Amino acid sequence: MNYDSYADDTKPQLARPARPRIGITTRLELESDRFYLSRHYSEAVEAAGGVPLHISLIPRRDYISAVMDGLDGVLLPGSDSDVDPARYGAEPHPNLGTVVPVKDETDFLVLEEVEKRALPLFAICFGMQVLNVFRGGTLIQDIASQTSNAIKHEQGAPRDRPSHNVRLAKESLLSSLAQDEKAFVNSHHHQAIDKVGRDLIATAWASDGLIEAIEDPRPDSFVVGVQWHPELGWQVDRLSQALFNHFIAATKEYVNRAGKTSVEMETESVAEGAPANA
Questions:
Q1: Which of the following is catalytic: 125, 188, 189, 215?
Q2: Which long-range contacts (CB under 8 A, 24 or more apart) does 78-81 make?
Q3: What is the distance, to the nearest Å, from the Cα of residue 175 to the centroid of all Cα atoms in its chain?
C-alpha cells in the first residue's frame, strides 16, 4: 500500500498497470438532501491500487446498469441508516434507526448487478447487513434490547480505536489474511446479522456470539463482509491492509477472467506475429 501523504507529489512513483475501478455507494444526508461519503473508504481503496468511484443513490435500473458497465469491483460501505425490516419480513422494532429507502433500493440494484456479473464485492458494516438481507437473511434490529450479555458494539470516538476481539473461523479467508484465528477490531453498530443469507457463511464472531463477518465460499467468488470498519486506521492495521489489498487483487483477477481489451489483444497479436528472436 502507499502510505505517503496525498499532499506529497514530489516522491517518484512506480509504474503500475491500469488500476481496477471500484464503485462505492454513497449516503444521503436527509437534512441537507446531499449525497456524501467518508473519505476513508476512497483513500483505502486508492492506497491498495484501485480507483474509487462514487455511485449516487439513484435507484434506476438503467442508471445502475450503466454505471456497473465501467466497474471492476464494488465496495458497499457503512451507513448511518438501518435496512428497512420490511425487506426481511419483520415489523419495525422501537429502537430501529432511520430508514432511507433510496439507500436500500440503490444498494439492492447494485447487488443485483454484482450477482449478474460475478463482480468482486467487499461489504463493510451496513454494507454487510444489506448484503445479508439481499441474500434472504435477517437482522437483529437492536443489539442492546434484543440480545442478552452483549458486549459494547457502539464504541464511540476515537473511531479507529480497536475495542473488542473477534474469533476467526479456521480455513476462512479472514483467518488466512490475519494469519491468526483472532483479531482486534473497532465497533460501530447497533444491529447485527441474525439468520445468514443464502450462499454465505459466518466466519467471525464477537465474544458474545454475534456474527462479525460473512463470506461466500463458492469457488471463483470474492464476496466478503465485515461488521467492523477496516477503512478506519488502515494505515497501521495489518488485517485492514490485507483486506483491501486482497479485494483489489480479486478485482484484477476478475478483469483477467472477463477478457482483455481490444488494444491489449491487438498488441499481443502483433507480438505473436513477430519473429521469435525479435
A1: 125
A2: 78/38, 78/124, 78/125, 78/126, 78/127, 78/188, 78/229, 79/27, 79/103, 79/125, 79/126, 79/127, 80/27, 81/27, 81/126
A3: 17
Report the candidate in 214, 158, 149 with the shortest Cα–Cα distance to residue 187. Answer: 158
The torsion angle over the Cα atoms of residues 133, 137, 143 and 149, rounded to 10 degrees, is -160
Give catalytic status of residue 164 as yes or no: no
pTM (2 decimals)?
Answer: 0.86
What whole-number distance in Å separates Cα of residue 71 and Cα of residue 158?
33
Question: In the chain, which residue ranges form alpha helices assigned H by DSSP?
Answer: 39-47, 61-68, 101-117, 126-134, 143-146, 173-178, 238-258, 262-272
pLDDT digits (tens, 9 = 90+) for 181-238: 999 898 889 999 999 999 999 999 999 999 999 999 998 889 999 999 999 988 888 9
Tell me, yes or no, if 268 is annotated catalytic: no
Query: What region does 89 belong to: left with phi over 0, alpha with psi -120 to 50, or beta?
Result: left
**Residue 231 a catalytic site member:** yes
Query: Which is catalytic among the residues 40, 188, 229, 246?
Result: 229
Please determine, looking at this structure, whether the domain spanning 21-258 carries the CATH number 3.40.50.880.
yes
Please give the Cα distance from 100 to 30 (Å, whole number): 9
Instruction: Check: CB of residue 163 under 8 Å from CB of residue 152.
Output: yes
Write down the residue that cell numbers 491468526 correspond to.
180
Show me where the domains of the chain are located: 21-258
The closest of 78, 64, 141, 139 to 108, measured between CA atoms, is: 64
Q: Which residues contact 236 (CB under 8 A, 6 or more apart)?
A: none
